[in-house]
């Protein structure tokens, strides 16, 4: 069965016209796009040239005068040898100076032997235990007891612990009366022993012991009693 269409509803006749119109529109848009891009580039280039010209006008180029080099230092004047030396005529008399050129290598030099210290008498260095006259505290035994009573300080730690007793000390009375080599031979407690030794070392010089009419060194034993 043949389909019949009305001439107004038939689009085949308008197909060619629509294609031509589309091509014209496409070409027009392409042309407009190219013209727009070229105009933007031209405007950008003109603005860039104007900016460079303004920068060149603002920048002021100056030149500094070069500083001349400093003048060279003055050259020292040459010293003439005649200014230093006093030149004398041949007829002027010059004083002769005598030099002793004798060789003294063969002369002997006497070197004195060093002076040896005097030898100590071994008898004076000997420590005696018993002598004719024993050493004595100045003023005797009573004066020594008073000295001990006045100068001994009972250690506080020993008092708090109720410690008491007799500390036996030995020392040497030199030939000049000085007390040396104080030792505790029998102690009670560390604080009491130290106090006994301290008091003996603080004693004044004694009257030295004598043996054969000479002062000699004597070992002396002294007990000190601590009692609460």
- Name of the top-level CATH class of one domain: Alpha Beta
CATH fold field value of one domain: TolA/TonB C-terminal domain
Please bin the fraction of helical residues: 25-40%
Shape: elongated
- How large a portion of the residues is in β-strands, by DSSP E? 15-25%
Gyration radius, in Å:
65 Å
Please give the alpha-carbon distance between the first and last residues: 158 Å
Q: Which blocks of ≥5 consecutive residues have pLDDT under 50?
A: 55-63, 80-85
Mean pLDDT, to the nearest integer, reads 75
Oligomer: single chain
Query: What's the helix count?
Result: 6
Query: Per CATH, which architecture of one domain?
Result: 2-Layer Sandwich
Based on helices, strands and strand pairing, what is the structural class? alpha+beta
The helix-strand sequence is HHHEHHEEHEE
CATH homology superfamily of one domain: TonB
Number of strands: 5
The biggest beta sheet reads: 5 strands, mixed
Brief write-up:
This protein has 228 residues and is of the alpha+beta class.
Description:
The chain is of the alpha+beta class and 228 residues long. Among the domains are: 36 residues; 101 residues, 2-Layer Sandwich (TolA/TonB C-terminal domain). 35% of the residues lie in helices and 15% in strands. 9% of the residues are buried. About 7% of the residues have low confidence.
